[in-house]
Amino acid sequence: MNQNRKSIIDMAQGAIKERADYETPTKKRTLTLQLVFSPDSERRQIGVAVTAKSKLEPTNPVGTALYLTGDGNGELTAVEMVPQIPGQQDMVGGEQEEPATLRLVKGA
């Protein structure tokens, strides 16, 4: 048998493997090699087109917490919870800002 047997990714003078290496992740991602085989009408030659597709994993979700309260005018308001009382200083001298407030629309 032929001692020069290789994997399909070694074909095209190494260009397929080069495309895969180009997409080598530095962060977690999915790598897909799409191979499309196109035989000619006489089935003597088969064209092969390879596309390397990568998809980054989504970032970590960002979370917050809201609490419901009245706004003093009889309207319901959602206020973002903050780690300290607004105006209070933390251990390094920073001051807690006022929390973000959402206006809730009735009937929405």
Can you tell me about this structure?
By secondary structure, the protein is mainly β. Helix content is 7%, strand content 32%. It is built from one helix and five strands; from the N terminus they run αβββββ. A three-stranded antiparallel beta sheet has the order 3-4-5, with no helix packed on it. The N and C termini lie far apart (74 Å).
The strand count comes to: 5
Fraction of residues in helix = under 10%
Reading the helices and strands in chain order gives HEEEEE
Q: What gap, in angstroms, lies between the N and C termini?
A: 74 Å
Shape: elongated
Strand content: 25-35%
Evaluate the radius of gyration: 29 Å
Q: Summarize the main sheet.
A: 3 strands, antiparallel
Give the count of helical stretches.
1
Give the integer mean of the pLDDT values.
Answer: 83
Low-confidence spans: pLDDT under 50, at least 5 residues?
Answer: none
What spatial order of strands do you see in the largest sheet? 3-4-5
Structural class: mainly beta
